[in-house]
Amino acid sequence: MKDLLVQAITSMQEEEAVALAAHMLGAGAQAQTILEACREAMCIVGDRYERREYFLPELVVSGEALKRVAALIRPEARQAATGEPLARIVIGTVAGDIHDIGKEIVAFMLTANEFEVRDLGVDVSAGRFVHEVGEARPDILALSGFLTLAYDSMKQTVAALGAAGLRDRVKVMIGGAPMDDGVRDYVGADAYGPDAMAAVRIARRWSEGG
Ligand code: B12
Questions:
Q1: Which of 129, 124, 195, 193 is closest to 160 using CA atoms?
Q2: Does domain 2-80 have CATH number 1.10.1240.10?
Q3: 209 C-alpha to center of ligand 1: Å?
Q4: What pTM was estimated for this model as a whole?
Q5: How far apart are the C-alpha atoms of 41 and 162, rounded to whole Å?
Q6: How many of the other CB atoms lie within 10 Å of CB of 71?
């Protein structure tokens, strides 16, 4: 079943992918299994794009399929989460960048692991992040970016938090394919995570006071 789901997403069969995921969930599959299929599928699509076998339309269609599948599993994750959240997290893709597949996976995994997540979407300005941190008072701000221009958007966001006197109130983590610890230093964030599980580990460590 999992392989069929990977196959459906990578061959642009959006309706088939959504139906398969719904069927798998109905038959008791773990949300995690479906998520793994999504990751695997996006790796395959990414490789084909880089080999110029696929072009932008394929990326868009497979991205849409992934988002619809993720929307199916989000309620499952919420049901799994009980009681008080471990911490409150605001997440978004930074200004100038509209890549959101990786961010959706991170948001999903954090929700599944009992964090309360507010997702601001894509192309989020530094000002909007500052406003949300001031209003919603999250414990953690998670910044996602897939373009190299995101480095500067992230840096501006962290600087704007400082200018608003909010930098000490929130821990900042960054992630996305071109990010690393060097970028973390450049932008002034507190942590960098290479994947969604790393985001969960970092958030857990911080929520335990580490
Ligand atoms: C899909 C895709 C698109 C889709 C995006 C659809 C969507 N809804 O997101 C579309 C077609 C729209 C697109 C558009 C563009 N794209 Co594009 N895209 C990609 C592609 C193929 C895959 C990215 C992806 O979604 N990967 C899947 C996820 C799951 O990846 P992942 O890294 O495993 O995700 C994990 C981590 O990153 C981490 N993570 C993510 N966020 C966070 C946050 C935190 C806090 C933490 C801890 C972790 C974390 O956790 C994730 C889950 O485990 C990449 C190439 C590639 N192979 O990466 C190019 C790529 C990112 N795109 C690129 C470019 C250039 C563009 C365009 C400018 C193209 C154009 N000429 O218009 C536009 C940008 C528009 C804009 N302003 O943003 C370049 C970027 C180059 C650069 N250095 O800046 C890349 C690298 C392609 C390339 N080789 O040239 N793109």
A1: 129
A2: yes
A3: 32
A4: 0.84
A5: 39
A6: 13
Name the 3-class secondary structure at 64. helix
pLDDT, tens digit (0-9, with 9 covering 90-100), for 23-56: 999 999 988 788 888 878 878 888 888 889 998 8
Instruction: CATH 1.10.1240.10 in the chain: give the residue spans.
Output: 2-80
Instruction: Identify the CATH homologous superfamily for domain 88-207.
Output: Cobalamin-binding domain (3.40.50.280)
Q: Give the number of residues written for the chain.
A: 210
Could you give the residue range(s) of every CATH 3.40.50.280 domain in the chain?
Answer: 88-207
Find the residues whose C-beta lies inside 6 A of ligand 1.
Answer: 39, 42, 46, 49-50, 56, 59-60, 63, 96-103, 105-106, 142-144, 146-148, 173-178, 193, 195-196, 198-199
Q: For ligand 1, atom 81, which residue shows the shortest CA distance?
A: 147
Q: What is the per-residue pLDDT across 86-104, written as a single tens digit (0 to 9) for each?
A: 999 999 999 999 999 889 8
Instruction: Calculate how far, in angstroms, residue 210's C-alpha sits from the geometric centre of ligand 1.
Output: 31
